[in-house]
């Protein structure tokens, strides 16, 4: 059950808070089509991912398993892709936490204007978050389970609270023209996928089960079972949440959220009457975005530290390197980098679409390559592998379509 909770916690992040905005822009029919594509493909992908992990003779991380299967070049390539996944997450959450926090302070009447217009506000906020992340690793892990359960409960409660305000007639548009419908489905697919994906936690889960179970088959069964339970819970909760939002927020309100670079939760608190929705939306956004920021920071700091130490030890003996000074320097570098990024006010929705190929390659394409290149995995060849590969290609199309002006 602990791993089920962690899988759910990994899924409830930026995807769920920005999905309703994209749904409001493209429409319910596009969302329905993207769900029919993304959710089955994600389940098949994560099952295939676990199968490739379980067939490895070594109990190690996914990059190590790729190296074992395909050689060092593929292992290095995957490590680079994972690094960019971490960077993309930090870029997304730094924008979200800045603009959403400023919007909430305005909603609660603390400020009249938006503090996100002030560079000092974003700098102070990022300094605070990085300080907590750098010092409070043990605290983050201790409180993760209750925070995840709280997030899941708020997702369901928000969906229920929206029901009295549903306006199906206004928010159920006619089917768009076929060409635009297909393009919108492709552009919405990354948001639909990110709202439920927890592939990042599957490798640590597999490793944990392999260490405590003497029989590898039993460890594999437990990993598959945790994956199925988490997936089923998320499908029900996220679909209900997103659909409920889609029937409340209008197309114009979704465009307003996009223009302000804020999530659907920050918008809901300002346009829907009643303090209950405002408090729940604030709490969910706070826990979803802040905990994700803190969690990803740990991985990013470790990755950058590995690169820095690799370079420094080429010129200085490892025992002479001041590890604390290196950590402080990395913290300063991350804060300044994220602060400079926030000042660009880059669109969060656009970033999600442009970064989709990173996830398409790492999570969808590579497991399919393994099945067709590694003799030990031939038994997993099936039409489902081609479905997974096809969805990976769809994710890679998002930036191409945006470059074409769609």
UniProtKB/TrEMBL annotation:
Stored Gene3D superfamilies: Amino acid/polyamine transporter I (1.20.1740.10)
Principal location class: membrane
Membrane topology qualifier: Multi-pass membrane protein
GO cellular component: plasma membrane
Record's keyword annotation contains Transport: yes
Pfam families xref list: Trp_Tyr_perm
Single GO BP term: amino acid transmembrane transport
Keyword terms: Cell inner membrane, Cell membrane, Membrane, Transmembrane, Transmembrane helix, Transport
Protein localization: Cell inner membrane
InterPro entries to which the protein is assigned, alphabetical: Amino_acid_transport_2 (IPR018227)
Transmembrane segments: 12-39, 76-99, 119-136, 148-166, 186-209, 229-249, 277-300, 321-342, 354-372, 384-401
Name this polypeptide is given: Aromatic amino acid transport family protein
């Amino acid at each position: 059950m602990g791993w089920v909770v962690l899988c759910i916690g990994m899924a409830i992040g930026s995807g769920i808070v920005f999905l309703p905005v994209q749904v409001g822009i493209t429409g319910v029919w596009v969302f329905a089509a993207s769900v029919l594509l993304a959710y089955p493909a994600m389940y098949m992908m994560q099952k295939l991912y676990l199968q490739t992990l379980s067939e490895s003779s070594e109990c190690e991380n996914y990059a190590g398993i790729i190296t074992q299967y395909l050689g060092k070049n593929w292992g290095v390539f995957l490590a680079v892709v994972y690094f960019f996944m971490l960077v993309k997450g930090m870029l997304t959450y730094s924008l979200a936490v800045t603009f959403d926090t400023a919007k909430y302070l305005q909603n609660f009447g603390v400020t009249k204007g938006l503090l996100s217009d002030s560079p000092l506000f974003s700098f102070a906020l990022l300094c605070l978050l990085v300080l907590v992340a750098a010092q409070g690793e043990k605290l983050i892990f201790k409180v993760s389970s209750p925070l995840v359960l709280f997030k899941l409960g708020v997702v369901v409660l928000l969906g229920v609270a929206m029901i009295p305000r549903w306006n199906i007639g206004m928010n159920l548009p006619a089917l768009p023209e076929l060409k635009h419908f297909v393009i919108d489905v492709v552009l919405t697919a990354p948001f639909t996928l990110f709202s439920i994906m927890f592939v990042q936690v599957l490798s640590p889960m597999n490793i944990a089960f392999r260490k405590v179970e003497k029989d590898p088959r039993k460890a594999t069964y437990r990993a598959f079972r945790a994956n199925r339970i988490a997936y089923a819970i998320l499908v029900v909760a996220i679909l209900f949440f997103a659909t409920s939002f889609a029937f409340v927020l209008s197309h114009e309100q979704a465009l307003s959220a996009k223009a302000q670079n804020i999530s659907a939760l920050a918008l809901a608190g300002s346009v829907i009457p009643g303090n209950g929705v405002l408090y729940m939306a604030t709490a969910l956004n706070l826990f979803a975005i802040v905990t994700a920021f803190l969690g990803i920071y740990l991985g990013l700091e470790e990755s950058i530290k590995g690169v820095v130490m690799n370079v420094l030890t080429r010129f200085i003996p490892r025992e002479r390197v001041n590890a604390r000074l290196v950590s402080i320097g990395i913290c300063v570098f991350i804060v300044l980098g994220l602060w400079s990024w926030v000042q660009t006010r880059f669109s969060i929705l656009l970033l999600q679409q442009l970064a989709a190929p990173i996830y398409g390659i790492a999570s969808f394409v590579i497991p399919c390559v393994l099945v067709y290149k590694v003799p030990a995995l031939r038994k997993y060849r099936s039409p489902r592998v081609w479905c997974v590969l096809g969805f990976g290609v769809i994710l890679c199309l998002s930036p191409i379509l945006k470059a074409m002006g769609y």
